[in-house]
């Protein structure tokens, strides 16, 4: 695949991520490029050169992606530079981290406590948020485990390859 095609895909990912997640364009470009580049774990310098962006812009984009669990930095023994790869099985990156929903549920319950004497109509939105987050927290662990098993079966059947960075997550 040509570099032009890779950059076009990275730009498409940038637009998607900006629209869906309000990420700055460089965050989506880095994520898109990591998904299609030849190297399974390029360095920050590699990303900077390929995306024609400053190292600072790349580093900031990686920090954003790390904060949401979508990428991981690794460093081989003896290397002086970080390598970056997509963390394909991160529960947080897949939207399957219960802590976010548990925190939102706790916040909704805090609001409900403030409104404990208010009429039910006024408490309705927070009550539904609390119930929904409880529902998600009860269901997501099983769904995530189901996906892990499905993924293992797909890898075993040769339908999807095991990523080259498998097992390198901290």
Automatic annotation (TrEMBL):
Organism domain of life: Bacteria
Keywords associated with the record: DNA-binding, Transcription, Transcription regulation
PANTHER family associated with the record: HTH-TYPE TRANSCRIPTIONAL REGULATOR MJ1563-RELATED, HTH-TYPE TRANSCRIPTIONAL REGULATOR MMPR5
Name used for this protein in its record: MarR family transcriptional regulator
UniProt lineage: Bacteria, Bacillati, Actinomycetota, Actinomycetes, Mycobacteriales
């Amino acid at each position: 695949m040509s570099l032009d095609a890779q950059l076009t895909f990275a730009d498409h990912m940038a637009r998607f991520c900006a629209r869906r997640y309000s990420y700055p364009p460089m965050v989506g470009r880095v994520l898109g490029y990591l998904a299609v580049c030849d190297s399974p774990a390029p360095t920050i310098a590699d990303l900077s050169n390929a995306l024609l962006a400053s190292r600072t812009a790349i580093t900031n984009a990686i920090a954003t992606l790390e904060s949401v669990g979508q990428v991981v930095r690794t460093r081989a023994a003896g290397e002086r530079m970080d390598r970056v790869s997509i963390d394909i099985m991160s529960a947080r990156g897949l939207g399957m981290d219960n802590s976010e929903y548990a925190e939102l549920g706790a916040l909704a319950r805090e609001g409900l406590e403030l409104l404990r004497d208010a009429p039910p109509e006024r408490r309705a939105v927070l009550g539904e948020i609390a119930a929904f987050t409880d529902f998600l927290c009860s269901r997501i662990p099983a769904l995530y485990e189901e996906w892990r098993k499905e993924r293992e079966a797909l890898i075993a059947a040769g339908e999807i390859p095991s990523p080259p960075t498998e097992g390198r997550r901290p």
